[in-house]
């Protein structure tokens, strides 16, 4: 794949990810998914250190440095690749909580559009291009998805959220979000939150938000190393106790995730 001559007309994109030592193998998988993105003007990947302690953070920094060297070598070997000049920007360990890490990372981004990617989820090749195109068509400053898919690796089942619009008009989890940089002029996450930080970032989900196509956005991974366990959600759904999700039957998971990538992710999440 070569660089598109229309690249100079495209808005610059920053991808932002919070990662940690225990999920470095997930981060390597995300690196491969980023290289498959069809959007040609991803200028940087901002990785925020989110390990639980400084010792782990320092070890993970060594891992990120190795990844950076690998990326640089690959870029030198194939300078015409559309993602050869993505800059990896690493923010070292600070000990901050999740919402503060998100603010720290967002403020570091230089792209006109910021696309959020968690290290452990699957993102299709059109994740970035779909988000950018959707934002381009609207006056909304932020995009997201509420009816996302979840694949439970232990149970081997795929689920789909029906959305939470009966409670919130505009809802999305962070891993589905993308936003124009000007959104940050008047919005940030509340300080000191360990989870559920999205509400403060969106004024309790009241900010106008363009809806992304879930199949072009994400398949969330449910596994043993989730910072917020999704397994109970999946189990309750299978037992008919969760009205917000339903099982997706009749299609293999490889209909949604290419077989080679799925096997790689399955190996990561089932080796524990």
Automatic annotation (TrEMBL):
Pfam families: Glycos_transf_2 (PF00535). Residues 85-151 form the Glycosyltransferase 2-like domain. Gene3D superfamilies: Spore Coat Polysaccharide Biosynthesis Protein SpsA, Chain A. This is Glycosyltransferase 2-like domain-containing protein.
């Amino acid at each position: 794949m070569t660089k598109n001559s229309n690249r100079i007309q495209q808005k610059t994109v920053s991808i932002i990810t919070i990662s940690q030592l225990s999920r470095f193998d997930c981060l390597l998988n995300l690196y491969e998914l980023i290289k498959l993105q069809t959007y040609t003007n991803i200028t940087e990947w901002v990785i925020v250190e989110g390990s639980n302690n400084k010792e782990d953070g320092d070890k993970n920094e060594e891992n990120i440095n190795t990844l950076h060297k690998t990326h640089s070598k690959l870029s030198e070997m194939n300078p015409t690749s559309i993602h050869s000049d993505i800059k990896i920007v690493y923010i070292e360990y600070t000990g901050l909580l999740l919402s503060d890490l998100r603010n720290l990372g967002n403020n570091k981004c230089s792209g006109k559009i910021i696309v959020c990617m968690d290290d452990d989820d699957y993102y299709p090749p059109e994740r970035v291009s779909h988000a950018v195109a959707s934002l381009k068509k609207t006056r909304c400053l932020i995009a997201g998805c509420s009816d996302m898919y979840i694949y439970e690796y232990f149970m081997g089942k795929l689920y789909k959220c029906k959305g939470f619009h009966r409670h919130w008009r505009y809802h999305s989890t962070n891993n589905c979000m993308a936003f124009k940089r000007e959104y940050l002029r008047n919005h940030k996450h509340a300080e000191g939150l360990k989870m559920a930080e999205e509400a403060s970032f969106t004024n309790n989900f009241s900010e106008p938000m363009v809806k992304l196509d879930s199949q072009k956005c994400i398949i969330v991974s449910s596994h043993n190393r989730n910072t917020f366990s999704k397994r109970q959600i999946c189990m309750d759904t299978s037992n008919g106790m969760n009205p917000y999700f339903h099982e997706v039957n009749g299609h293999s998971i490889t209909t949604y995730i290419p077989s080679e990538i799925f096997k790689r992710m399955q190996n990561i999440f089932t080796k524990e």
